[in-house]
């Protein structure tokens, strides 16, 4: 009702309980990196299928019911490929989303599977009509076209407790984030065009599940 460009970036971001679902998953990164620094990986601390910390499972932990439901879903079904869809930019990000240097807002923080993640992100970005358009304009200030419209999430801005990092470290699912439109709240009349921009990208991305 406020108009697609007048509501602000934070509109709709938090749940009724005041929880930001985008930062609500267990931080497994810090535990892994601390174990690596102390030479505990992989014999004393795993570098995949990392268990959820006990504090996160307590009834009084600040974990949204939506987050708990998604984690339960992940644990019941062994997903290997995933994507979550965001709005407000035109770029595909890939793990890690959290910077390894905890006080840095931006820092290139690749996973051990960086080549695979870059490929998955590139598959989506190069087949997305809006991202690949020669007439494309910048959404805001960042020129992601210089990087092929993909970027390591932590190298853009750090996101502790992201679903991408949690999926990768807890369940071995390779997950990317697709910022699929400059407009966070497109009008209903614009939805067919948004679908056309992303249809082939979604299909090609799903086909990557057959590759190893």
Automatic annotation (TrEMBL):
Peptidase M14 domain location is 1-209
Q: Kindly list the cofactors needed.
A: Zn(2+)
Q: Name one GO biological process term.
A: proteolysis
Task: Indicate whether Metal-binding appears among the record's keywords.
Answer: yes
What is an example of a GO molecular function annotated in this UniProt entry? zinc ion binding
The answer on whether this UniProt entry bears the keyword Protease reads yes
Q: Which UniProt keywords apply?
A: Carboxypeptidase, Hydrolase, Metal-binding, Metalloprotease, Protease, Zinc
Catalytic residues identified in the record: 179
Under the cellular component aspect of Gene Ontology, which terms does the record hold?
extracellular space
Q: Which domain of life is it from?
A: Eukaryota
UniProt similarity note: Belongs to the peptidase M14 family.
Name of the molecule in the record:
Putative carboxypeptidase X1
| Native organism | Spheniscus mendiculus (Galapagos penguin)
């Amino acid at each position: 009702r406020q108009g697609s460009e007048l509501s602000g970036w934070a509109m709709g971001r938090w749940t009724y309980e005041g929880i930001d679902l985008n930062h609500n998953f267990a931080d497994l990164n810090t535990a892994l990196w601390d174990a690596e620094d102390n030479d505990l990986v992989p014999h004393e601390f795993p570098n995949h299928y990392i268990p959820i910390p006990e504090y996160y499972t307590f009834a009084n932990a600040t974990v949204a019911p939506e987050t708990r439901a998604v984690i339960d879903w992940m644990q019941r079904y062994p997903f290997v490929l995933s994507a979550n869809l965001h709005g407000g930019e035109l770029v595909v990000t890939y793990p890690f989303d959290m910077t390894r240097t905890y006080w840095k807002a931006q820092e290139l923080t690749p996973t051990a599977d960086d080549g695979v993640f870059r490929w998955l992100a590139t598959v989506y970005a190069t087949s997305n009509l809006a991202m690949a358009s020669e007439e494309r304009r910048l959404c805001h200030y960042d020129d992601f076209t210089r990087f092929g419209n993909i970027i390591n999430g932590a190298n853009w801005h750090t996101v502790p407790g992201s679903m991408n990092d949690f999926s990768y470290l807890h369940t071995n699912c390779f997950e990317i984030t697709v910022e699929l439109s400059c407009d966070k709240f497109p009008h209903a009349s614009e939805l067919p065009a948004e679908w056309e921009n992303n249809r082939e990208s979604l299909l090609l991305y799903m086909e990557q599940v057959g590759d190893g």
